[in-house]
Write a structure and sequence with these properties.
With about 350 residues, this protein is an alpha+beta fold. The protein contains nine helices and 13 strands. The chain starts with 13 loop residues before the first helix and ends in an 18-residue tail after the last helix. The model has no long low-confidence stretch (mean pLDDT about 95).
Length: about 350
């Protein structure tokens, strides 16, 4: 009988730590450099609470739940946040103009080479500034991270990105046409409503699988994952811009086309690094979108999360703004050459079942 495979040594064993330590020190240097980057640009670094009444209202994000117990024994549900976004936007409503935040965030059902249940999100927000300025920030941050790590190339699993080159800007519609031969906008009307049957026919014509119970959002995601993402961030970084409104729950529509929103994602080496928005500030529209997201979550997963009413109240006072969330650990990976996210985490979360 074959012997069972030995469990890998824990991260705290000296020989394992010695292998990881160069990546960890590189992470620290990059974080210090980024703090200097934001301070030099008059950003205030803020620190937000991890416990929230709502973890966020995106259909496919899964939170860790807990509860607060009062002095009288009463119990109220709380969640570990999946992003500091709601708190940061409340700070914009309070009067802050430029803020940055390194936040530990928590996402359930996520573990793999690029995913971890607890990780660090770097978010920054600018009141009164267009989201195109975030694109410039992204290019400068990629270059700074590489320089700090002592490299001129970002790498991940055989793919490379030159961080000194200006990122390519590509709309989602252009990417669908270029990499899948699909006219995405033909499946979206002027009100942002989507046509599932039209998109399904386009996927079938492109040789992609379509299941009977696939929604428009499922089909959209399949094209992104199977045909688009493998081509992004190769040679130079890619800014994938103008997501359909249906895929941008927290972003405002663009001025030139109401079918698409001021949302972009940053890719390097085929890896998604950041997600940015021209922020939606209409509380009624935000409530409608949250409710739609939670209805979809209930349909797919049989659960939903409460809406943060305090956040919606603050949104009515929030100025026009742009904001972005960047996976800091992933950036550290690409700059230091790490192959798994645990290599750049000082104390990884233990895997369950071990």
């Amino acid at each position: 009988m074959d012997k069972p495979l030995a469990a890998p040594s824990p991260w705290w064993m000296p020989h394992v730590h010695a292998d990881r330590r160069p990546f960890l020190l590189g992470r620290n240097r990059i974080q210090a450099a980024l703090r200097g980057f934001f301070a030099a640009r008059d950003f205030v670094e803020v620190d937000t609470a991890t416990l929230q009444t709502s973890p966020g209202n995106e259909a496919h994000l899964h939170a860790f739940a807990t509860e607060a117990i009062g002095l009288d024994g009463s119990r109220a549900p709380l969640y570990l946040h999946t992003s500091p976004e709601f708190a940061c936007k409340k700070l914009l409503a309070a009067g802050e103009r430029r803020i940055a935040c390194f936040a530990h965030v928590y996402r359930n059902r996520e573990r793999g080479p690029l995913h971890h249940p607890e990780f660090t999100m770097l978010e920054w927000y600018k009141a009164g500034e267009p989201y195109e300025t975030l694109m410039r920030d992204c290019g400068e941050i990629l270059a700074l991270a590489a320089e700090t790590a002592g490299t001129r190339t970002l790498r991940y699993r055989g793919r490379e990105t030159d961080p000194l080159r200006e990122p390519e800007r590509l709309s989602v519609a252009e990417a669908f046409e270029r990499f899948a031969g699909i006219d995405l906008l033909a499946s979206i009307d002027r009100n942002g409503e989507t046509d599932r049957e039209h998109l399904a026919a386009s996927l079938k014509a492109a040789g992609l699988r379509v299941a009977e119970d696939d929604t428009w959002a499922d089909l959209f995601s399949r094209v992104i994952v199977e045909r688009v993402e493998p081509h992004l961030g190769l040679g130079c970084a890619t800014i994938l811009d103008e997501y359909p409104v249906a895929e941008a729950a927290l972003a405002r529509p663009t001025a030139r086309d109401p079918r698409v929103a001021e949302r972009f994602e940053l890719y390097a080496c085929g890896v998604e690094l950041a997600n940015a928005f021209g922020e939606l500030t209409d509380p009624a529209e935000q409530r409608r979108r949250f409710e739609a997201e939670m209805a979809e979550k209930m349909r797919v997963y049989g659960e939903s999360y409460p809406v943060d009413e305090d956040f919606l109240a603050a949104l009515a006072h929030m100025p026009e703004a742009s904001g972005i969330a960047l996976g800091f650990d992933r950036l550290a990976m690409l700059a230091t050459g790490a192959s798994r996210i645990e290599q750049v985490l000082w104390a990884p979360v233990p895997e369950t079942g071990r």
